[in-house]
């Protein structure tokens, strides 16, 4: 029997005992065990397909969410992008990855509460320094620090934003 099947069998049995239990203390113990089992079943990784490309995806876990909400700020040297993600500080550091190029960055947060989160910024308004850029994980937030190539004020983050402002 697979591990998942074992858990499901345990859960069924706990439910049977719960149906028969009359003592409050015993019911409480069984309820706690039932919740633990349900959680464990929920957190079981799905069976892995043989296909390598698929394995790549499933090693990312469930389902990928595009992040659309962020705040940003700038100093002379940095553009700072603040991305709120509840509980992100509990992840291992390698689960929060940012790839920088001179005019873009993308953020990947792996397996946060069973989901992956991505955010991509292409066509940054001005070039950034890949070596000087970094990310910091704070409580419920990722801070992406893009090091400006030149110390100047950016009126917005991306070319697209600039163009849509100019149209207005």
From TrEMBL:
Q: What GO terms are given for molecular function?
A: S100 protein binding; tubulin binding; ubiquitin protein ligase binding
Residues covered by the CS domain: 65-158
Gene Ontology cellular-component terms listed: cytoplasm; nucleus
The answer to keyword Cytoplasm applying to this record is: yes
Q: Which cell locations does it reside in?
A: Cytoplasm; Nucleus
Give the protein's biological function. May be involved in calcium-dependent ubiquitination and subsequent proteasomal degradation of target proteins. Probably serves as a molecular bridge in ubiquitin E3 complexes. Participates in the ubiquitin-mediated degradation of beta-catenin (CTNNB1).
What is the name listed in the Swiss-Prot or TrEMBL entry for this protein?
A: Calcyclin-binding protein
- Coiled-coil blocks: none
Cite the entry's keywords alphabetically. Answer: Acetylation, Cytoplasm, Nucleus, Phosphoprotein, Ubl conjugation pathway
Q: Does the keyword Oxidoreductase apply?
A: no
One Pfam family from the record: CS
User: Per the UniProt entry, what are the Gene Ontology biological process annotations, in alphabetical order?
Assistant: heart development
Where primarily located?
cytoplasm
User: Gene3D superfamilies given for it?
Assistant: 2.60.40.790, UVR domain
